[in-house]
Amino acid sequence: MDEDDLPRPGDPLDTLMKSDLDRLSVHELEARIRMLEAETERTRAKLAGAKDFRAGADALFKS
């Protein structure tokens, strides 16, 4: 993993990654997984949109 891929200090993702999972119940862990999967899908959709936008801009300026 590249250093740029790591969360910055104070970043909510950094806090999430350092969360103590030992205190969570099975139900809470399952809910957390569902939430993280939903967030992953939301992030992938945003990334796909950004790539499409970038491709459109690149095509416009190549013309």
UniProtKB/TrEMBL annotation:
Domain of life: Bacteria
A Pfam family that the UniProt record links to this protein: DUF1192
InterPro entries registered for this protein in UniProt: DUF1192
Designated name of the protein: DUF1192 domain-containing protein
